[in-house]
Each structure stands twice: as C-alpha cells, then as structure tokens.
Amino acid sequence: MTKSLRTQLAGAVAICALLPLAAHAETLVVFGPSSWDTFAPGAPEEVVQEVTDELDARFMEAHPEVTEITHDSRGTIADGLARLRNAQLAGDQVDVVVCAANPVNTSYARLGLIDPVGDVVEGMGDVFTEGSVENFTIDGTVWGVPISAVNLTTFFYNKEVFDAAGIEEPTTYEEFVAAVPALEEQGVIPVVHQGKNAWMWPLYYMSSLAQTTGNDQLGQVESVLAGEGSFTDPESLEALQLTWGWVEDGLLDPQSNELDENQMKSVFYSGRAAAYFGGSWDVPAVEVNAPFEWGVFKFPKYEDQPGEPVAFGGAESGLCISSTSPNKELAAAYIEFAASDDQLGLLLDPLTPLATSHVAMEGASDPIAEDLRSYLPADKFLDWVWPRELTTTIQNEVQSMMGGTITPEEAAENMQAKFDEMVEAGWPEE
C-alpha cells in the first residue's frame, strides 16, 4: 500500500468517525413522556401539529446547523416516567423533554433524568410571571423553563341556585355552612365532588393546611420530609379535621365517593348540586355544558385560622434538558427560543389561557378569567412535593376519611406510618 493510499484511507476513517457526531449536531429530538406532553397540550391534534411544525421551521431558520427536529410524544401520563427512563437507558437520543411540573418535582430531577436550566432562565431576564419558575424549582435549583397556560383551583357554582336560595358566593367557610339550610330547602346538594378520582381529594387538605400553617404549608411539608415534623403535628391534624368538616357540617355530599368526574359534572349541570371544587382546567367544559348562569369563587377562609385562602396551580408545563442529550447546548438554544416572547402567540394562543407563564401575555379578557386572575399568584401543589408513593397514600387516606370509614386522627397516623416505612426502606434513594 502506497503512502498516498494510506493517507487517503486514514482520512476516510477519520471522516467516518466524525459522522455520528455530525448527525447528532444536525438532529434534535424533542421527547414527550406522554401524549399530553406536547406544545399547545389539549388543543386538537391538527393544531398541535401545525404549531409544532411552525416552531421547528422558525428555529431551523435561526439555526441552519439543525437540519431535522423529531418529536416523540405518546403514551399515558401514568406511564410517562417509565417511558422517559426506558428511552434514556436504551441509548435513544433524547435532547429536549417536554416536562410537566408534577414529574419534574417528584421524579425527573430526583432521578437524574434532566439537567438544571438555571442559566437559561437567568439569561432570559424578567420574562416570567410570579411563581412560574418556582413551580420548576427544587431547593433553589431550576429544572424546567416554563411555557404554559396557568391553571388554578377554584369552586364553580350555579348562580341561579344561589339566587333562588337568597345567598351570595361565600368568602368564609362559616358563611358557606350558614347557607346549607337555604340550599337544602331548594332540594339542592351544597357541594358535590368527583370522589372516585382519588387525586382530587387532597385539594381540600392542601387548601386547609395553607390556613392552619399561616400559609407555610410548603414549609410544613418540607419539615415532615426532613424528619423534623409529622402528619400528626397540630397544624396537619387540624387541616385534616377541617377537611372532614366539609362532610360533617353538611356542605359536601358523602355520596360523592361514588362519583367519577363525568357523574359529578352531570349532577352539577342538572342543577342538583350548587357547587363543586375543581380547577380552571374545567372552564371550557362548563362553558359548553352548563345550562345556567355560573361563576367561580376561591376556597373560603376559615375564620379562626391564621392563614389566608390560596389557590393551587400556576404554570404546569415547561421544557427540560435531558441528562443524556448529546446536544445540550443546542437543546438549551431550542428551549430558550421556544420560551421567548416571540413564540408566545404561536404556542399559547390555541389554549385561550386565563393567564400564562409569561409577563408579555396576560390571558383572556372575559369576566371568569378576570375573576380567576385575582387569585394569582398560585401556590405549588403539594403533591408536586410529596414523593409519588406517599402521595398515593395521602390520596387514599383522605378519600377514606371523607367517606367516613376512618377518622382524621387515623388518616394522619396512617400517612405518617407510610412515610416512616419509606424512610426505613431507604427513602430517599441515592
């Protein structure tokens, strides 16, 4: 073999060795752990596709080194964690993760599936609304860049039923309890709930805990998780007792444990229930299906508690950098581009949001949206802070308590026993 031929072959080998890197540099993979983890989540499929294609085209025009962007969003929310982990373990290319705030807080960061993005957020300046970045922050580290409509917990109520009973929307729990006889005279259940959906029950407990702790519910949860506090502490136990009070005082129908979401809404739409506790994510459905004038009101104030009423929620969707990405700088550039003010109309307009994660886009201007915006800033859902396995126990214990099969004291003891069991088994795992 001549020297010239050896030189040519060596060069060819060198070029081949670089080809995989070049392919990575030109291809970006945006991974959605579930079918909900897309741009404009909840919009019709064709709208999601149009929005995604347009965003990618704009990014590739600004970054000509990128020749292909692929998207992989499928599966159920429940299977999202396993799908992301399996893709990374299999060595599949995953660069950007479309990430919901819940698994970011409970799983993705703790398990090392994503990288911190504080530098990206800091470089974007003051573009985010209060609380939005905090929803993706754990112990001071930012793990996701929010780009999201804002959702909030709220009561929905039938204004016509309230008017017939001669009552106003309550601002205090005591006012609501006082209205029970007038509602019952109308043959109406005061409050109905989607009891079969166990994840909805802790909303009452969270909302009560905010008030019993003087609005330091997050501090109380962190104290329990650090082993310094307990679910049987006075503030936590009193929150469970107040939650049970909704049934004991005649506000919440105990038969609600037999209803799923559709059945609950059917009771509400038929006028057989005056109100239900849900979230602003229900607004589109109520607008379409309620055959009466309706409104919203915030979780009421317990007069004897130190804290003020809060709404839980805020920005729920964002973008994360996969810890296994071979193109982390490019992934960061894509995230910063997508979350910039210039892309807000494209990505969020299809959702008709009441509010958003960005200062530059306030949200809808209708009276309901304006009412809901008065609740802001929202507080972080506590089931984004509790470990997933503990959350399941809390959901089941509150559900059983509201069904009358256990007492608040037993619920508190069972919740603490589950956490103690987790710690003994090695939680948190390294």
TrEMBL record:
It comes from the Bacteria. One of its GO terms (cellular component) is ATP-binding cassette (ABC) transporter complex, substrate-binding subunit-containing. GO terms for biological process: maltodextrin transmembrane transport; maltose transport. It holds the Pfam family SBP_bac_1. InterPro entries: SBP. Residues 1-25 form the signal peptide. The keyword Cytoplasm does not apply. Keywords: Signal, Transport. GO terms for molecular function: maltose binding. Belongs to the bacterial solute-binding protein 1 family. This is Extracellular solute-binding protein.
